[in-house]
Amino acid sequence: VVNLFNANIQTAREALRTGVASQADRQTLEAGIINAQSMVRAYQALLDGVQRGAGTKPNPADFRR
Hints:
This protein is 72% helix and 0% strand. By secondary structure, it is mostly helical. Helix 1 (2-18) packs antiparallel against helix 2 (23-52). The radius of gyration is 15 Å and the shape is elongated.
């Protein structure tokens, strides 16, 4: 899931960089990038918590937007 979001972020950044997006599309892409980055942070924090095991607690700040 993290890799999928990262790929989508990269695709959106490339569209913004190359200028192929209209102004309305640019706003949508920028909002999508911000949302996807939040999702990546949340999923990464979840994954880190699972990998650490049940004995440790994740940092709640990792789940905030």
